[in-house]
Write a structure and sequence with these properties.
The protein has about 375 residues and is α/β, with parallel strands linked by helices. It contains 13 helices and 13 strands. Helices cover about 40% and strands about 15% of the residues. A 7-stranded parallel beta sheet has the order 3-2-1-4-5-6-7, sandwiched between helices. The chain has a 6-stranded parallel beta sheet with strand order 10-9-8-11-12-13, sandwiched between helices. Keywords: Glycosyltransferase, Transferase.
């Protein structure tokens, strides 16, 4: 099958969508498909990547004539299906949808973000202006939490399927034969709580520090506790100021880590925290769960698709419930051990690449069936 992926952002950027799309492209090529990518992100040439960059300030991934260029690409290359990847606001991606409709090419749209009421209102307005529900597209979301607001806007005429983000589950499984942390007896430096993510204001990283402080207050002083928050971003300075003002020297901010470094860090982790309330999926939390670490997350986020309370971790709906969940896992070694053992023994099959590839191929077959 000839598949054309369209995404505003792509490598060399290293955000969640960029990395996930790049991994999907690689897996589809390994499966025998012919795959190319069209993106508005400037950068060095890559095999099979068409860069339609407009040279805008700050390297904005937008092209004022993107629809025209994408129609030319589609009519020249003739893909069997166009797979568009969109965030909350993705002008180039939606130009790709419009181009595919005009070129008569079947199109699947994956929404990687969680729509808020404002975003839903925007797409309702676009429906009134362009009637996109009649374009014959299929939509996928990365979790049930992300799919719900999309279904409310798309209506009955646009199918919205859930296809998880993909992960090489075996690559994150802890090595056998050695001592395994992640829920067992804490090390000499205490119970280790880990979080991974971009330090951006919308991710509320200072609120994460407040959450750790609240959890620490619920743990007896006799139990040692430390935390590591991996990531980089504009909120780092405010986080450092908060840590100094609160005397939280037991929390470290080591910066951005590679995948191998994150895997090594998870080998020493006892608890993983993913507190963002509007997390559409939570790939870092999935990596921790695959590595055998108990996960604490919001019950209304996409993490709830692969973390069940008392099985793979603990869920909370409010700040207080999250703080109590972290404290409970820090205090309760038996519970940590039980959850960690389950996570090591039971794979998150729905998030494995074979399941993800199968889910997308079903969507491709669906839209291709409507385009003779």
């Amino acid at each position: 099958m000839r598949i054309l992926h369209i995404s505003d952002c792509y490598l060399p950027r290293l955000g969640g969508i960029e990395v996930q799309v790049a991994d999907l492209v690689g897996m589809q090529r390994e499966a025998g498909h012919t795959v190319e990518v069209a993106t508005a992100t400037p950068g060095e040439p890559l095999p099979g990547v068409r860069r339609l960059a407009a040279g805008l300030p700050f390297d904005l991934p937008v092209h004022p004539r993107g629809t025209v260029h994408l129609i030319r690409l589609m009519t020249g290359w003739r893909p069997d299906v166009v797979h568009v990847h969109a965030g909350a606001v993705s002008p180039f991606a939606w130009q790709g949808v419009r181009a595919a409709v005009r070129a008569g090419v079947p199109v699947v749209v994956t929404v990687h973000s969680m729509w808020d009421p404002v975003t839903s209102g925007v797409y309702l307005g676009l429906q009134a202006a362009f009637e996109w529900r009649r374009w014959g597209i299929a939509v996928t979301a990365v979790s049930e939490a992300a799919a719900q607001p999309i279904r409310a806007v798309a209506g009955a005429g646009v199918p919205v399927h859930v296809v998880s983000n993909g992960l090489d589950v075996a690559a994150w499984r802890p090595a056998t034969g050695g001592a395994v942390r992640g829920g067992g007896e804490p090390g000499a430096d205490g119970v280790h709580v880990v979080a991974v993510g971009r330090l951006a204001p919308r991710k509320q990283p200072v609120r994460l520090l407040k959450l750790l402080k609240a959890a620490r207050a619920k743990v007896p002083a006799s139990i040692a506790m430390r935390a590591t928050i991996v990531g980089e971003g504009p909120a780092r300075a405010s986080m450092e100021r908060y840590l100094r003002s609160q005397g939280m020297g037991w929390v470290s901010l080591p910066g951005r880590f590679s995948r191998d470094q994150i895997k090594e860090l998870l080998g020493s982790a006892d608890v993983f925290v993913a507190p963002a309330p509007r997390e559409s999926f939570g790939l870092a939390a999935l990596e921790a769960r695959a590595a055998g670490v108990p996960v604490v997350a919001r019950s209304q986020s996409g993490v709830a698709d692969f973390v069940r309370p008392g099985k793979e971790g603990l869920l909370g709906r409010t700040f207080d419930e999250l703080a109590a969940s972290v404290a409970r896992l820090v205090r309760d070694e038996r519970l940590r051990t039980s959850i960690a053992a389950h996570n090591r023994e039971v794979e998150p099959v729905a998030c494995s690449w074979p399941a993800v590839l199968d889910g997308f191929e079903r969507c491709y077959d669906l839209v291709r069936g409507t385009h003779p």
